[in-house]
Amino acid sequence: MMADELKQVDDVRTQLRNLRQQVQAGAVFQSLNTKIGAVLDNLPSNDETPVSLPDDADGIKDLLKMLNQQIRATTLDKITDDQLMQLLNHLGSPDVDVRDREIYFFFNDALQQHVLSDSQLRLAVNTLLQDRVLFNHITEPENTAIFGRSFAVMILSLLAYADRVDAHFLDAETTMRLVDQLATYIALENDTRGFVGTSGWAHAYTHIGNLLDELAESQVLTRADKVFLMIEILEKYRRLGTPLIFGESRRLAAYLATVVNLNDLYEQAFLQEWRQWRVCLSNTPQPEDEAGWTRLFNRSRLLSAMILREDYPEEVSNAINAEVDFLS
Q1: Is the predicted pLDDT of residue 24 greater than 60, yes or no?
Q2: pLDDT tens column, 43-77
Q3: b/e string for 278-299 if b means 16 or more Cβ within 10 A?
Q4: For residue 6, what pLDDT is reported?
Q5: Cα 89 to the chain's mean position, in Å?
Q6: Would you say 217 and 258 are in contact if contact means Cβ atoms under 8 Å apart?
Q7: What gap in Å lies between CA 316 and CA 81, rounded to an integer?
Q8: What is the pLDDT of residues 156-212, one digit of tens each?
Q9: Mean pLDDT value across residues 123-146
Q10: Does the structure show a pLDDT above 70 at 328?
């Protein structure tokens, strides 16, 4: 990342962090969506620059073949830090076999079989949280760096799950950094592509939903942070001018069901946000461009996904079922 782009990312992160601190202090609540929206409406945008991709001819395929053979036979009990870093570096590969079918499934199995040590779990988290990984070319038009960004979030969700249910390897400082970086990533990620040609899944907004779901279940995060993340993803979702048509709405609906069932505070915060969104649409003329119609149908898909679920609190169910007219 160039120095100017790093500064732009840091400016967004600082604004969001300041807002989170205000929510934690009780200074902001009712106006949170407006203040987050002001940040989202003034994001940096840069011209496209060349993306540097990992070299899949560097031995990664042989390494993956060896590791996955051993892990499927349950004979793998450890890997080296160098091997771990090689795997993480190739999350940005546009080769679906390397990135998705091999590295992702390896991490899934490795976490279940406790192949990685606590220090390696922390190494993985700290590596994936780096700006050069999460925000690589993120302020530019759609590009192949999406694979590395999106799959970093995907693996972070696996690691967050492992920390929550079993390993407990994350300290409070790292967890807060994770929230910081995720909030910044949600703000900046505009690539909504799902399955991309021969390169396979990008699916950033599904992976965001996965990580949000894990953090919603966290015993470390404050209520303020959980409210902040919920309002931010809804404010971002309503601004996306490109379609979410590969199941992202179902994933977000599942996350929302998790969070609103945790406590009445989250339920009421969601209802306030949802109703204000509805009022805004009612007061807005019919769209006259592609982006406007896309936003409307993105919301319709989210509403449909929520209506199909049966695990929302009664007040939320009543609110969303009252909007069936938006499905037409």
Answers
A1: yes
A2: 999 999 999 999 999 999 999 999 999 999 999 99
A3: beeeeeeeeeeeeeeebbeebb
A4: 92
A5: 19
A6: yes
A7: 47
A8: 999 999 999 998 999 999 999 999 999 999 999 999 999 999 999 999 999 999 999
A9: 98
A10: no
> Closest by alpha carbon to 218, among 273, 188, 174?
174
Task: Show contacts of 278-286: CB within 8 Å, 24+ apart.
Answer: 278/323, 281/326
